[in-house]
Amino acid sequence: MAAPVSLQVEFGGGAELLFDGVKKHQVTLPCQPEPWDIRNLLQWIKQNLLKERPELFMQGESVRPGILVLINDADWELMGELDYKLQDQDNVLFISTLHGG
Predict the structure, then answer these.
(1) What is the pLDDT of residues 13-68, one digit of tens each?
(2) What residues make up the domain containing 56?
(3) Residues pairing with 63 in the sheet
(4) Considering the domain boundaries, does residue 68 fall inside one?
């Protein structure tokens, strides 16, 4: 059984508007049989933090194109993207790079 994981989850670049305007969230993910990864985190975020228009944040089981994901200030593409195994005290940042005109 994987232990609970405490994270800081942040949203910026307008993405925070989908989360009641709250940019920083301290979250503790509960115990589960498998270790937490970004794929599981995104589902947890959708169920527990996302307040409106999930189609603007997620596409399938991942984030929409145009949302930059940083794990501890490193691009998630360098970390294994959806398969990155979350560690206690990780900082996961989602930044929307799409802006209306």
Answers:
(1) 999 999 999 999 999 999 999 999 999 999 999 999 999 999 999 999 999 999 99
(2) 5-96
(3) 58
(4) yes
Residue 9 covered by a domain: yes
pTM over 0.85: yes
- Tell me, yes or no, whether 101 lies in a domain: no
Burial (CB count within 10 angstroms: exposed 0-12, middle 13-18, buried 19+), residue 100:
exposed
Angle among Cα 72, 73, 79 to the nearest 5 degrees reads: 65
CATH of residue 75's domain is 3.10.20.30
- Segment 43-51 long-range contacts (CB within 8 Å, at least 24 positions apart): 45/9, 49/9, 49/19, 49/25, 50/18, 50/19, 51/18, 51/19, 51/20
Q: What total number of domains does the chain contain? A: 1
